[in-house]
Amino acid sequence: MNDSDLMVVLMSYGVIGLLTAVLVIGYHVFEPKSKGELYKAMIPAEQLSAWPWMLKHVLKPLLGFVIVIFVWPLAWFVGFMAVREDWQRKAKDKRAEFVVKRRYLKSPCQLSLVEQSSLVDDPLGAVPALPFGHLNAVWCAFVQKKPDAAELWSFACVWENRYGRKDQRKGYAWLLNREITDWVVLDIKPVSPEE
Questions:
Q1: Same domain, yes or no, for 79 and 123?
Q2: Average of per-residue pLDDT across 104-132
């Protein structure tokens, strides 16, 4: 590597650092501020003592600008790690949602037999004499979502949420062309740690 190649590399490094510094400063300039910061920013400079104002609004940004020019790979790495952490958090939140999988399916069912077998008979009259009692509205909403030609299947599984709590979940799902289109959970029981 001769001197001209080294100069091209250093110039490229500096230009990328300069662009990165401009992006970082621009991000912080246009970042939404709280009302308190906006109010302080509207105070004329002569009402503030000169040194703190100079330190906050001139020297700190200038020092940050110069540092970013020389260590821009670190700035990009820190930015990438922040974005990656946000993606991972969103992916973890998405995984935490319960989804019925094909392996949870137990057996096909007939809608009329399911409704007949799930009628609640409460001698005290506290629970409505409807399929699944108090959960009848949930059941009816699930039945209305039935796609044409879909089959009703029962399912059961042990599911662990993101906090490590395990539940035994039972319910029904619509199966169409080997795909689960919708499901309803009608029974959730905590699983004891011994099980």
A1: no
A2: 86
Q: What are phi and psi of 110, to 5 degrees?
A: -100, 130
- Of the two residues 83 and 195, the one the predictor is more confident about is 83
Regarding whether 50 and 32 lie in a shared domain, the answer is yes
DSSP assignment of 26-39 equals HHHHHS---HHHHH
Is 72 part of a structural domain of the chain?
yes
Give me the amino acid identity at 111. Answer: L
For 61-99, the pLDDT digits (tens) are 777 777 777 777 877 788 788 888 888 777 666 556 788
Residue 175 has pLDDT above 70, yes or no: yes
What is the rounded CA–CA span in Å between residue 4 and residue 22?
27
Domain boundary among 95, 118, 144: 95
Q: Which of 57, 76, 95 is the last residue before a domain boundary?
A: 95
Domain count, the chain: 2
| Type of residue at 154 | S
pTM of whole model > 0.70? no
144 and 114 share a domain?
yes
The whole-angstrom separation of Cα 17 and Cα 71 is 7
Let me know if residue 195 belongs to a domain. Answer: no
Q: How many CB atoms lie within 10 A of CB 58?
A: 10
